[in-house]
Amino acid sequence: MEIFGVPTQALFGQLLIGLINGSFYALLSLGLAVIFGQLNIINFAHGAQYMMGAFCAYVLLNELAIGYWWSLLLAPLIVGATGVVIERLMLSRLYKLDHLYGLLLTFGLALVLQGLFRHEFGSAGLPYAMPEQLTGGRDLGFMFLPNYRAWVIVASLAVCLGTWYVIERTKLGSYLRAATENPALVQAFGVNVPRMITLTYGFGVALAALAGVMAAPIYQVSPTMGADLIIVVFAVVVIGGMGSILGAIVTGFGLGLIEGLTKVFYPEASNTVIFIIMAIVLLLRPAGLFGTQK
Amino acid sequence: MTSNAAAVPIARTSGVLRHQQIAFLAMAGFFLLAPLVVYPMFLMKVMCFALFACAFNLLIGYVGLLSFGHAMFFGMASYTSAHAAKVWGLTPELAILFGTACACLLGVAAGLLAIRRQGIYFAMITLALAQMVYFFSLQAPFTGGEDGIQAVPRGKLFGLIDLNNVWAMYAFVFAIFIGGFLLIYRIVHSPFGQVLKAIRENESRAVSLGYDVDRYKLLAFVLSATLAGLAGGTKAIVFQLASLTDVHWTMSGEVVLMSLVGGLGTIFGPVVGAAVIMAMQNYLAHLGAWVTIVQGAIFVVCVLAFRRGIVGEIAHAIRKPL
Amino acid sequence: MKRRWISMLAGAAFALGAGAAGAQISDGVIKIGVLNDMSGLYADLSGPGSVVAARLAVEDFGAARKGMKVEVVSADHQNKPDVGSSIARRWYDVDKVDVIVDVPTSSVALAINEITRQMGRAFLASGPATSDLTGKACSPNTIHWTYDTWMLANGTGSAIVRTGGDTWFFLTADYAFGHALERDTEAVVLKNGGRVLGKVRHPFPGTDFSSFLLQAQASKAKVIGLANAGGDTINSIKQAAEFGIVRGGQSLAGLLVFLTDVRALGLPTAQGLIFTETFYWDLNDQTRAFTKRFSEQAPRNIYPSMIHAGVYSAVLHYLKAIEAIKTDDGTKVIEQMKKMPTDDPLFGKGTVRADGRKIHPAYLVEVKKPAESKGPWDLHKIRATIPADQAFRPLAEGGCPLVK
Question: Is C197 within the bounds of a domain?
Fold first, then answer.
């Protein structure tokens, strides 16, 4: 059977791959959106922190024989802790200045982190074994879906929805959202706003690291794995609306699907389609699809 | 992004101008004499990147717009100049002119899209546009993809002077650099430049005074893009190679770093910044990844503690603009 | 304004007065520059191992005994043509390097080929694959050692087509090497009566091949030709296994596979892979002896790939040529290397052709099954030997301007 001259097998297969890519876009842009929403800083180091999550899992496995499932918990905690340190020591000094300085600082940090890991591990990709419980796959008829990739979709959906729920529907989330709008007032109510900001940054970083651990078995663990991905994720966040959680999730998955579609019908454009969409959105709706003009 | 130029009086007394004249002579003198002791290819590289950084700085330092995609102008001019010299056989000055013209057109197209936004959004949209140019360069047949355009002939300047002679090439690059630098100086110290500064300081007041702010910003953007293209085209002829590195976003990041280190919003800052960063890359090249680490560390330190940059600090100390 | 005129006059004066800054005569030292990928996806098949190979060659030549001073330097070109050409220029201009060796990335190799020709030095290309180096880009200053895309296509490609793999789909690394390998293999497939059902280019280096592999699967070609190398090949094969491609009945043809790749893949995944190479550590006593010395000094004690062997062989022959004509002028040494037949413990006896192509026999190799292997590096079995005069592209077909 064919749709627009393309066999459905190819179409659905690429869409599914697109959904898998979209899972990573969604997870990463979620972290970025959380950070931007709270701190008004574009965290250029997000890609490097994603990479650190993957390396953390790699080291945990090869040095301490700690497997994938534990790494899912430990790596985000460890990398999130480094995020907390970064925020305390460096980012907090920049809040009074133009927001672009935050961008430049995190850009510099990204270079440092990437360079350190490249120095230590070389720039070739390192293998990370897939967890045994998730090897193999099932034949869906139109393609063979490896179990691990199915897990990626399910897990990231769960994390995204969970985060959205916490931020939009719980009391803690309401404090966070209030502090974004009027930190002084919230502090006057007795909430420790600086600490909340620090932990928010740490949480965003932890989300990046979680994405890194999930990426380790399928994409090789390499110091440059986050570098080119982060630019795409920026585009996703901008399209979705810089501080919007829902926007990040929906746009992340959506753009993954669009990229998959483009690969089928017009593969040459598959790299640029996200940026083209971003340019259009910025012209028509500068605050993004789900964002609110600040 | 406000620089400290606002805090320093820009009164046109002869004392102020003399300081800048001295600095200019020192810079020109350095580049004239240094090739006797320092590897000329390295100095030519510094001059190309210094011009690139000066062009970038025009936008950030004097208009207040941080472009994170300037590599697209540098790289596209590099490719088109290389193509013109190699495939069409144009003489080097025509090839570079062609490349610069292409960068200008790209600047108009990008500027029309990007100028409407400010701050973070401006940075993001320039980054996105630059990524589109990168992927276009990756796939377009004429750029040669990963291989780049290689074996670009140096050619004969004006059909007469063979640029394979390293001294002739050096003199040509020096002339372009000084010319571009003086052009930027002229732009900044003209009525046009004054309006740009006014827009940076207080855009709404400039609007209320009747200036068409968007047109000024667009013009500044296109000028900045054109001069970045001039640097890119020259670089392609000097190194006889145009490659993907020239359009990659890390190149945009490098030029930001050079301007930051040298001093945003100062005339001589980007030149000093380019020299420092190129020298550092040279010294640490054999240490591989350390170059990236040190560059990142310099970024972090500059943003946290050294925002004025080298020339900015000097200017602040002597209380005169540089 | 006045300043600009003065500078231009000064420049013109320089241009008229100064002499050419061309090639330098050696200053008593033969400096060998090993330029390759030291930390990226080709680091294991070339990288620091090539430096070890070069040093072993200098040692075996006995430079010290013969009163010749030889120095080996090295640098990382990061698989980028601009980085590689900057290093080459600086080496030739400032550091007085006489010969550049290795360069395993074809796009960088083409750039080095050009610069070496311009500056009259020597380039011993052990690492790169593109057959253009002895074709339209051939140069009197370059010798292409070890292997090339034509040899790989002819060895592997024709062997597979003749055993029934007559429909192909190519997964190609999008740079000079990938294109050349795809082009040469396609020609062989078509010549042997096969068909090419489709091609897809992946970015270099790539990470996720899933969407490309899916396209390959959809094409239903019997053979999926991997026109890539190093880490890219390893990842393509691993991800193909993940997506059940081989289980679905298609077979993978690794068009360029090295010993170190097979080791990284592991025998269970790699078994049955068929490819062509020109050196294997376990061929005879001499290769085994070299391997022992090499792996003692190599990082992580790896065994030599054919590129490492090529570096050794090339450096040895280069030094012998210098000994014969007593000068290290690049063009003259290369000419001498073409006049002298080669003989070294790794490739045996061979020759260097007028177009710069080094000729030696090639071996069709199959990866052993895990049960057949008796040691961690006992990975290949030799299926056939392709004699030297048939392994490489005939002299007349290359289109090299040096060949009249």
Answer: yes
Q: Do B131 and A231 lie within an 8 Å CB cutoff? A: yes
pLDDT in tens, B284-316: 877 777 888 999 999 999 999 988 899 999 988
Q: Is the domain of C230 the same as that of C345?
A: no
Q: Are the C-beta atoms of residues B42 and B213 closer than 8 Å to each other?
A: no
Whether residue C109 is found in the same domain as residue C47: yes
C186 plus C268 within the same structural domain: yes
Beta strands C99-102 and C122-125: pairing type?
A: parallel
Selected for mutation to probe chain C from B79, B147, B149, B185 (highest C CB count within 10 Å) is: B147
For chain C, first and last CA: distance in Å?
55
In a domain, C39, yes or no: yes
CA A6, A10, A16: angle at the middle one, nearest 5?
130
Instruction: Answer yes or no: do C155 and C240 share one domain.
Output: yes
**Do C67 and C129 lie in a common domain?**
yes
Q: Where are the beta strands (DSSP E) in C152-231?
A: 167-173, 195-202, 223-227
Residues C163, C140, single domain; the answer is no
- Nearest beta carbon to residue C243 from set A125, A144, A267: A144
Closest-approach residue (CA) in chain B for C13? B168
Read off the pLDDT of residues B253-284 as tens digits, 9 standing for 90 and up.
999 999 999 998 899 999 999 999 999 888 88
Domain of residue C261 covers 150-277+362-391
> Please, which chains are in contact with A (at least 3 CB pairs closer than 8 A)?
B, C
Rg (CA), chain C: 22
Where are any strands of DSSP class E within chain A?
Answer: 2-3, 6-7, 137-139, 144-146
How many domains does chain C divide into?
2
Same domain, C198 and C263: yes
Residue C397 lies in a domain: no
Q: What are the residue ranges spanned by the domains of chain A?
A: 20-121+128-224
Residues comprising chain A, all counted: 294
The pTM (predicted TM-score) of the whole model is: 0.87
Segment C293-303, tens digit of pLDDT: 999 999 889 99
- ipTM, 2 dp: 0.86
**In this complex, do C203 and B289 lie within 8 Å of one another by their Cβ atoms?**
no
Chain C, 35-64: which have a CB under 8 Å from a chain B CB?
38-39
Residue C400 lies in a domain: no
> Which residues, including other chains, have CB under 8 Å from residue B186's CB and lie 6 or more apart?
none
Six-digit token string for A205: 């970083």
State the Cα–Cα distance between residues C332 and B119, nearest whole angstrom.
Answer: 60
Put simply, the answer to whether C231 touches A7 (Cβ < 8 Å) is no
What pLDDT was estimated at residue C9?
A: 47
Contact B85, B95 (CB under 8 A): yes
